[in-house]
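Lecture 7 notes: from sequence to structure.

We start with a single chain of 56 residues. Read the sequence below before looking at the structure.
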Amino acid sequence: MIFLDQGMKVMRLGTEDGRMAIIPIAPTEEQKAIVEKVELFMAKCQELEKEISKSK
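Now the structure, written as tokens:
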């Protein structure tokens, strides 16, 4: 029998490692473009949910 009892290291933001971590952030314009796309997809999801509700 094989027992896998070893975990993995998860970086926690409250630790020294977490505070020193380099976290990449997209440029502002790219963030805005991402938000626009997500909002379009969410609107489409809402439309589809309405269609599904009507068809029941």
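Helices lie at 16-20, 28-55. Keep this in mind for problem set 3.
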